[in-house]
Amino acid sequence: xxxxxxxxxxxxxxxxxxxxxxLLIIVGAAFLN
Length: 33
Prior knowledge:
Blueprint: H1 2-32
């Protein structure tokens, strides 16, 4: 379980990039419409 805890630490940065990417797509789709 401790290994998973360590993995979540590095995932936070990746999750932030994914959220920003999704926001970019939503904004882009709204702009195109």
